[in-house]
């Protein structure tokens, strides 16, 4: 029922003058009668009205009509909502407009996180990333406690959980952050429908990205921009990203409470690794603890390095430095422990009045790459697949389990390793130390430098092993702390020259690339200690060392460390030709006789033929 302010004031006047006077200090009996206008207007129970009135401190000087003005104000803006704020990504209090919306005119707030079984069922998540999530939830709960609230971790499928919660907590409003990933869109649409059936208002706010991806697509004639420059043009017509909103304080919770009982710890507590079926003994070093507090501290630390920030050029950073040469804020941005808008606007402050680098290589530029892939992911159907993805070149990748396992350092190859600690795990074994060191860092630590990702992604796909980027995407999805659906798919599309980037003839050498920034091979020695005694001359190509050198290094190639699984010079040249053929097929330049165009002929056959002809 909608009641305007004047009508509300009239109702309250009548109510106060008859039942509830300031003289008895708000403690008079509220009629039990359902017809009580206050109860009708506010939708609250009698007890809730009483609690609310008791909170208001009254002096003995009522307003002109006998009602204390503050009481009138408070009651005419009486909170009428019981809100759930649903944390998914966005695991933070700062720059969380949906959380603020949940608190507005709210009497009872339930901040929740749902442990949705869809995720472990449909994607592999490393124990390191589970730890990051648990820490982020713990930190979120601590930060909520500071403003007199708590986090409820609910177990179950959202579509099953919500109807129960709506009823149990008498919810009138549900808020959450917009998420454009396919599963999220489908899940959220289902939850919205359930909310409507339960008369629950739904409020969604954009805060995961700098811009509303759907708006960017709309501004670009309904299509996601397919180049960075095009994205920049569209964004310049929209203007600067919105400024972040402040974190709520206990003032936002003044009229609102989160009902929490000690018994809830058991039902709604933060899960442990064991509950999630994870083995803590498999954890890697604790280099990047999760959580908003950690994220903001790390952002502060980086932003204090003004000169570094202003000079930041991504291509000049090193893939194989012993400590990260970029911010490693990606896991925090991925889980939403850090708002991209906060990151963006902090950079604006630093750049102001100073000479600084620009997109695409600057730190602002990095955040725009994120926007680029998010927008593409939001607008291109089957973005994480080759088949059915309109932006993706159709390539006849090989299936080669042996190569894939050598690259991904597959545990299945080593039955005993399931009971081993991380340091005992078998090292990657492509036989290229630079590639194997990167994959070992990925598996143990969960983060690798962007150019290191370039090196191993190119090696797996168009560079050397000719394995589909979708396979690489799955491995990254499991092992990266920052694994993010749109960014992972988009970057794999790029690196495999399947979309966005088309200079497939530029291939990274698994030997020369790493040498440029680490001649000594210290990075390799750190992650592949078996090679630590090799002289710098051979550290990138130990198979070329004389037997005597291998003996001195206590590492015989082919026995203690594998020989290279492919000959880079040969396969990379062949692969360029295969890529050329795929591009020709895409543009229809392979002529009427092209086997790929004939019905019933598989692509693999077409390429085999292509090479026979050569
Ligand atoms: C094959 C491949 C897969 C990738 N998968 C992911 C992924 O799943 N999740 C992920 O966050 N990044 C992914 N990236 C992008 C990039 O490598 C990481 O974002 C970056 O290395 C993170 O380190 P940083 O925080 O130090 O980055 P910085 O250089 O400090 O950049 C700051 C922030 O900008 C964003 N950013 C930087 N580079 C990119 C980029 N190329 N694309 C999109 N956003 C970027 C990140 O949020 C990052 O935290 C992938 C790159 C490749 C080549």
TrEMBL record:
Enumerate the spans annotated as Photolyase/cryptochrome alpha/beta domain.
Answer: 81-210
Q: Which UniProt keywords apply?
A: Chromophore, FAD, Flavoprotein
The cofactor(s) it depends on are: FAD
Q: What SUPFAM superfamilies does the annotation carry? A: Cryptochrome/photolyase FAD-binding domain, Cryptochrome/photolyase, N-terminal domain
Its transmembrane ranges are: none
InterPro entries, alphabetized: Crypto/Photolyase_FAD-like_sf, Crypto/Photolyase_N_sf, Cryptochr/Photolyase_FAD-bd, Cryptochrome/DNA_photolyase_1, DNA_photolyase_N, Rossmann-like_a/b/a_fold
Q: Which Gene3D superfamilies match?
A: 1.25.40.80, DNA Cyclobutane Dipyrimidine Photolyase, subunit A, domain 3, HUPs
Q: Where is this region: Disordered?
A: 581-614
Give the family, as the similarity comment puts it.
Belongs to the DNA photolyase class-1 family.
Q: Which PANTHER family match?
A: CRYPTOCHROME (PTHR11455), CRYPTOCHROME CIRCADIAN CLOCK 5 ISOFORM X1 (PTHR11455:SF9)
- Name of this chain's protein: Photolyase/cryptochrome alpha/beta domain-containing protein
